[in-house]
Each structure stands twice: as structure tokens, then as C-alpha cells.
Amino acid sequence: MYAEERQQHIEGQLAEAGRVAVIDLARTFDVSSETVRRDLDQLEARGVLRRVHGGAVSAARISRVEESVAARTDRNSDAKERIALAAMALIPSTFTGAISIDSGTTTSRLAQHLRDWQPAASADSLTVITNSISIAAIVSENPHIEVQLIGGRLRGITGAAVGSATLAQLSGIRPDIAFLGANGVHADFGFSTPDPDEAAVKSALTRGSRRAIALVDASKLGIETLMSFASLSEVDTIITDHSPDDDLTLALERADVETVIA
Prior knowledge:
This protein has 262 residues and is an alpha/beta fold. It has 10 helices and 15 strands.
């Protein structure tokens, strides 16, 4: 088999499984590991994949590129709506505690539904803590919700406060539930996002809550982005719109993460 044919086969396997192993490819092609590594080097130079220990992963699964919230708002809209509605079921009218809401497009859908949230008793209220200006503005329209906006350095691309001042404020807050967004959920790498400052805030939100719930549509499953902000075991529940693949499903089960399919 010529190198071009091998590389086409590797591209096909990456498209299907997202990753390849050198030892498996060497066995499949009946060539040496060195030959496979040369193929992977050439594919990496073309931007098809990224080399990792023992093999390679699809370049799409390790994206370091971060799009703005505006660019992502209408993508996978139906899935995000179902996820937000499933999350709302965890905030019934009898809920009187505090929740935190991370920045993101799916979490913004949750915020939109919170505009209509009604407490069971007229004297009750809900506290929403967020570092997102847009989410704070949305939920503040509900007179039954008290909004605590966490300040700090504003990232224009996400409209979220980040930095040391943000982290200092979060260190003194312990909400009942943290609703989190993520750019990637991976069996080995956990929950990730491209920006280190956003990752630090997400990590603080995760670890500072009594219950951490990730809201992620299926396009994020199996994806690795630059910065891991939580291991799978640090999140209690993941709400998504499609069952994860076998590897991620097994990893979530081992980490005792509840998976809710909306």
C-alpha cells in the first residue's frame, strides 16, 4: 500500500473514531511503527491531525480557536433549547437556594427560561450568581430573582468577567448548583475550554458549588480544547442531547457522573 493510500485510510479512521494508535495502524498496514509515524507527521503538517502519545487525534478535537458568543448563539439551537429545559427541571418553584450560571450559549438559554421562573410562595426568591454580563441582564428581568454579578476583567469574546478579582469573589461563595458550559468533554482530558482565564473561573465555579452540572450539546462530546478546568469526577451531572460514544460513556460511568439526555 502506498503512503497516500495509508494516509487516506488514516483520515477516514480519524473521521469515524477521532483518534488512531500507531501500534494498531502498523498492524493494519503491515508496516513498521516508524513508517506510520512518518505518515502521521505528514498529516499533521497538513493540519489533519495532532500527534499525541501513542498515536494522533483529529485536529477538530483539540481546537484552540475560540469563537465569540454571538457566532455560536444559533448553532445547534434545538439541542440547546432541550438541554436548557432539562436544566430548568432542576430549579422547581420550590427551590429557594442559590445557583451560579457560567457564561456560554447553552447556559444563556437557561437564563432566558429563568425570566419566567416563579416561586411557590410569594415571599420566596432565587439567587443567581454569574460572571456573565448578558446572563445577569437576562435574569434580572425577573423580580423574583436576586442577581449577584461577579466582577473582574471583562473578556469581550464571551462577555464574561475573569481574572484574579473574579476568582477572589468566587472563593467566598458556595451556591447549591453550578450550571457550567464547556467547549469540550473528553474521556481522558475531562471538561475543557480554550482560554486559561475562562478555565480558572470555570474551575472555581465547579469546585465551589455543592453540585456541578455541565450543559453541553453533542458537538462538544469527545472534544479536547486547550485548558482542562475539571476532571469528569468533579462534575455531578452532564445534560446533553445525544448519548456519548462508548469510551466517554464508560468514563462518565466510572467517574460516577449522571448523564441526562434531553
